[in-house]
Amino acid sequence: MEILDSLAYGFGTLLGWQPILIIIAGVVVGIIVGAMPGLSPSTGVALLVPFSYTMSPALAVILLVSIYISSNYGGSITAVLINTPGTPAAAATAIDGFPLTLKGQAGKGLGMSLIASTIGGVFGTIILIAFAVPLARLAIGFHPADYFALAIFGLTTVGSLGGGNVAKAMVAVLVGLLINTVGLDPISGVSRFTFGADALYDGFSLIPALIGLFALSVVFTAFEKGKLSKRQVSAAGGKFPTWAES
Amino acid sequence: MSDRIFGAVGLLIAIVYAWATLQIEESFLSDAVGPKTFPLGIAVILGLASIAIALKPDSEPEWPSLGRLAEILAAVVVMVLYAEFLPVVGFLIATAFATTYLTWRLDTPPLQAVLIGTLTSGGIYVVFKLILGLSLASGPFGF
């Protein structure tokens, strides 16, 4: 049972006060990094690699993994509180979480997101440990047609999130795809819709587009309503979700 | 009526987009699918969805008053100016001005707005440039 030996060794490296302190520090830094729109989990890890130079390899990996995992959660904090996803992955959290904040139940939104992130993270890790090898085999068997089907599935899911009018949701999805076709075609390298402008060759990158579309739309909605104070949350409290609610 | 105009604009975008797609010059290396197929697919479905909206519009949305629309337009102008001036005057100054304007127009007393704008800009500058060592556009004074 090679896998059990490896697991025992892996958990063994976590024992002691040093790894625990590093995990706590990594999680705190990671949440802050994730909550900042513009700093993605991978940017956060890249920025903090220099800090790991003086550590032993095991501790360095522990630090980077804690930062990566917690920054993926951190993105949901700004998504829930100010409707601006801190990480691309938190875009869907903003749809459910921000209305809770407007109702004065920010605590519930943040708690739910924390619980979901924790369960998802632990579950994902277990799956990874148990099925990494068979999953890798499956991934190799994934062909372009399968990727295409998966992408179509994802896009139809996004379309259904629009609520109400399906045609409008489709238009939103397609405008997103349209923006994404600007730049060099990834297959043939032909430039598309760049109109000779060098700046357009790389296309539009995700984070600026996310900030522009999410954060600025909040600003414009505020202008439409007139005064920001009218939109203010009635009470910034809200309790952590109870056991039954979660 | 708003939805019909929205649908018409969508259809127009789809047609212009399809036309622009057909202008793409293919390289000699192109495969069977080529760089045009995907954009054409987008254009067709975008056009169909726009026609559907134009033919079956939702009930009329509530438009903001003329004054509000002017405010939104002014905010857009400020954001465009921000993008234009960012490389010229640098992050610190450009962000302070943009934040001050937006906060002021969203009903904050002028003096507080200036304070919030300066602090926001300075705070982001300290965290990103000084602590994390990332690059932000610098102006004529080196910041």
Q: Explain this structure to me?
A:
- The complex is a heterodimer of chains A (246) and B (143).
- Chain A has a domain at 1-140.
- Chain A is 67% helix and 2% strand.
- Chain A has helices at 2-14, 17-35, 41-48, 57-82, 91-102, 106-140, 144-161, 166-180, 206-225, and strands spanning 183-184, 191-192.
- Chain A has a two-stranded antiparallel sheet with strand order 1-2.
- In chain A, helix 5 packs antiparallel against helix 6 (106-140).
- The longest helix of chain A is centred in the middle third of the chain and has 35 residues, at 106-140.
- By secondary structure, chain B is an all-alpha fold.
- Helix content of chain B is 71%, strand content 0%.
- Chain B has 5 helices and no strands.
- The longest helix of chain B has 24 residues, at 66-89.
- The N and C termini of chain B lie far apart (49 Å).
- Chains A and B meet through helix 8 and helix 9 of A and helix 1, helix 2 and helix 3 of B.
Give the helices and strands of chain A as they follow along the chain.
HHHHHHHHEEH
Query: What is the C-alpha radius of gyration of chain B, as a whole number of Å?
Result: 23 Å
Structural class of chain A: mainly alpha
Shape of chain B: flat
Low-confidence stretches of chain A: none
Q: Strand order across the biggest sheet of chain A?
A: 1-2
Number of helices of chain B: 5
Helix and strand content put the structural class of chain B at mainly alpha
The mean pLDDT of chain B is 86
SSE string of chain B, helices as H and strands as E: HHHHH
| Total count of strands of chain A | 2
Query: Total helix count of chain A?
Result: 9
Q: Tell me about the biggest sheet of chain A?
A: 2 strands, antiparallel
Spans of chain B of 5+ residues with little confidence (pLDDT < 50)? none
